[in-house]
Every structure is written in C-alpha cells, then in structure tokens.
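Risk register update: the risk that structure generation would not scale has been downgraded. Supporting records follow, first protein first.
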Amino acid sequence: MLARILMISILAAVIANGSVSWLKSVGWMNKTQYNALVLEHQAFLTRAREYMKNPGAFSNHDFQALKEQNRQLGPTIRSYLREIQGPLIFTKLLKYLVMLMLAAFGLAAIVRRENYLNKDRVLLGLVALVLVMTAVSGYRFGLQVMMPGIYGFLFLPIALTAGSIARPQNLQLLARFLALSLIILLLSCPVEYVRGIQYFSSGDWIHKRISGFLLQPNTMGIYAVCSFALIASLNQYKPISGFHVFWTVVTLALVMLSGSNTAAVAFVVFLGVTAIRRSKLTGFTTAMAFGLLVLALIAAITIIDRPIMDSAMGRLAKYQLYYTMDITSLTWLFGQGAGIASNTFLNFNSQFPVNPSHAIAVWISTDSTPLLLIIQVGMVGCLLFYALLIRAMIFDPLLRPVYLVFILCSLSINIIEVFPLNAVLGLMLAHSFYTRPGLRQKA
C-alpha cells in the first residue's frame, strides 16, 4: 500500500510540476497575456519564414532586426511560462516533497530493520563528497545557493535507503504509472501543437517542438525514452507482443514531436541493444545488426531534421568556456559547491535574486550532467557518479539497458535535476545494489 501511494505521488508530482506552464502555453490560463504573446510570436515566425524562403530580400538591417526580435522574444516567452505565483507554487514544490518522502520512508524502514543502508563504496564516496561540497557552498555562497543545490543530489539518499521500496514488484508498479504518464503526455500534444507557444521563440522556424508538461522539448523526449526503457526492460523476458509494439509507437511519437536528437539516438540505441540481447546474435549477424543500428540512427536524426552537430557543438562550447576560466587545480578536482550553475538555482534566482559574485560560471546553463557535476563537485565527483552507474549496470542485468539510456541522455541534459527521472534513478540504484548477489547477507 505504501509503495502504491509513493508511485501515485510520483505521477501526480510530474504532472503538477509542468501543469501551470502547459495551461499558460495553450492559453487556458492568463488568456490576455497569452493572446498578446501569440500575436507577437506569429509576427516573428512570419518574418522568419520569409527570410528562410528568400534571404536575399532582407537587408543587413532587416536581418539584424529579426535577430534582435528573436533575442528579446525568447526570454519573454520563457519568463511567461516559468513564472508561478501564489498558491500555485505548490505545484512546483510537490516534487521536492515526493523526493524527500522516498528517502524518509526508506530511512524509516532501516530504523525498523526492514531494510539496510546501501554500503556500496562508490556510492558512499560520492555521498561524502557531496556533503562536503554542500557545506562549502553554504559557507561560501549562502543558503540561497546551497538549498537549491541540494535538490540535484536528492537521488543519493534514495539510493542509500530505498532498497525495500525499490523491490522488483514496486518497480513494475512505477513502470505502470510512468506508462500512464506517457499516455497523458501524448494526449496533451495535439492541443499544444495547435495552440501552444513554443518554449524557444525560434527553435525550428517551421516545425513546432512539443514540451507537454515537461517544460522543455528536449526534456519531454528524454523523459519518454527513459520511461520506455524502464517499461520495456522490466518486461524483456516476455515474448514480443502488441504490448511492446504499442509502447514503442507511443514513445516514437513523443520523440518525434519533441524534436530531440538525444532522445532519438537513445531510443534507437535502446531498441538495438534490446534486439541484440533478445536474439543472442554472434559473429557476422552481430556485425550486421550494428550496421543496421547505425543506419537507424542516421535515419532517426534525419527525420528529426535538426542539426545535431550544432546542438553538440553548443554544449561542447560550454565545456570550453569553463576550461578557459581562472580555475584552480583544487576546484577542478572537487568543484565549487552544490547549486552553482544548476537549473534549480537559476530558476530559484529568478524569484529570489542573489548574486554569488565570487563564484565561477554561476550563470552558465550547463545542459549537460558531466559539466554540472564538474562545476559543483569537480572531476572527482563526475567520475564517481559515472562509476556508480557503470557498477550498477554490472550488478543488475535487468536494468542494464536503462542505465545505458540514462548515461546517453545525461550528456545533453542535467538528468539529476529532471523530475521524476532523478527519483527513478535513485530507485534504480537502490534496486541494483539491494538485489546484488550476496550483498544483503553481508549487510
């Protein structure tokens, strides 16, 4: 019963987290402001399409004016969609409550001796480093930076304590609720496609990218693929049936609507790896399977029709920017502290401004888990995080493909800040080490 309540809470929190932004996006809330933005956005898109059809007809002055309009419109739209005031702020706070509940119930089970503390050395090392760097953040930058920074690492107490909650039957229950969320997400897409304001003012100037209640298109695509990977992996020993085909089609639709290259690549890789695992191919047939996988990747990226190299180079440029800053060897190794450059802090700061002037790269929007970890807990913390995921892959064959998808997706998103993927990651880690052969007897 407790597990069911927790899993229902995860479903409720993920929908509530983006519900206000979605309602504002389609004009079912704040209608006056929505109508004004729609007119402004449509005027911009009309000019943008004209430029794409005939660039030569635009003078340099006209082109610069179009760029300036895009530069101003993007932040205006994002501010409109993100701004939440009054009692509605509870829709955002619910995810924090759910994360804390998962860790609290796991800790309560340990106290009652129904569970044990996860004693994996890599996990404990990462937890120790995060605790130290959280204290450093509070000392150097204050609570307004430290408190938002804690959220990105809440998957760790879940991984430490939630072994009894993350039993296979409870993961199956979680997968069912994630599946339900995908259906709700897909049903919301036609409304957003017709009425929604794009999160990015330009994005693809012709095709809309859908966000659903996940706030950003890339997040929606990645959420769909990660959820599908868990659903499919927990049912991987069942014969191929309409169940597998149905969820594959649902996920494919969400990935295409999101326009996320990362999600498309992760989706195809997961299908390829799963197919190879199921068929147990060897020799020449394995080589052919990998060749088909590469062709499928190329096809997926072509269908998405967004320049993948532009996206990749944009993220790499942020690594390069951080590398060129005046950073000491100690900071490279152990970071600056929890909260710096996190999306949670940046969003929090828009409501409660603070300026930690002596922090480095505090305003970088990292869009990449490795860079976020390097900034906050250094190269040591980053290596410990990915070592932890790889160890979990080794210990848990059932969830091995899911960890692969999480690792791929983490390269283009701060996955430890994306709810409920951070909660799912914590539960997966708890499951992987809780069910590790011999570990329970040693504990």
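Supporting record for the second protein:
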Amino acid sequence: MTVIGSAALFLLGAAPLQSWCNLPAHASWMRPGTRNEGGRAVPASHIFPVVSGLSRSVESLRHRPIRLLDAAEAAKLGGTGIRTAMRGQRRLRPYLVRAVYPTRHPTIAVRWYGDHLSVNSGGLGCFPFTNRPIIVLLNRAPKQLFVDAHAAL
C-alpha cells in the first residue's frame, strides 16, 4: 500500500500494466477527519452530484466548505430528483458541500459525527483526484466539514 498525503492507493491483484498510478492522489479540498466508522449515515437518497454549473459551483465553495442553496438553485445544479426527494421533508434543506472525486464515478458516503459532517469517497482506477461539489439534503448546517477520498487499482 502506498500512502500519499491522506489518500491511500491500494494495489489489489492488479494486472502488470495496472500496478501503479502516477496521477495526483490529493486535492486541495481534502481535510480528513480522525474517524472512519460510527456516526450517523446520511441516506444515499439525500446525496446528489452536481450535473450542471460545475465550475460555478466549485468557485462558490472557494472560501467556504458548505453553502445553503434554495430549492430552485439546487434543482438547477443537481436535477429534478432533488425536488422529488425534498417533497414532504420540511426539515431537509439542500446544501452544496465540498467533496473530492478520486475516480469519475465514486461511491460517496456522508456521515454525521455530532455537529461535524464527513464526506468520504472511493473508487477503482487511476484518475487524478478532483475537487467536485455534491448536493446533500440535511436538517441542519454542520459546524465543521471533513473530506477524504481513496482509490484502489
């Protein structure tokens, strides 16, 4: 196992041509927390990728890790599935949240640890880690955000 910064690159029975990766395994938004287990999971049905306005979304999180969105902006950035998920959920509000994509289509988990929110993403393959916001439906704003990402070959 090669550890680069806070990102781990695991070699799992990779073919000879896939046994190494020299692409960046770190992104400026990474801020790992100390916990990887426990906490309270945010349901996957409350997590959405940004599908339009990506560069504007990245820029809006330049100086802050999380931003409250109104319903119209959330639907514009993340699609109509957000409106469907929010129906009947008066306590949930859409937040634009920093995340790091270690692959093109990572698995993303969001967990609460008290008032702190943790975003962890992982995937298979050799791709540069990139800052990429997600939209998360939450019942309150977190006091602190931790972001971590991992990839395996």
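The chain has one domain: 2-152. On this basis the risk owner (M.S.) recommends closing the item.
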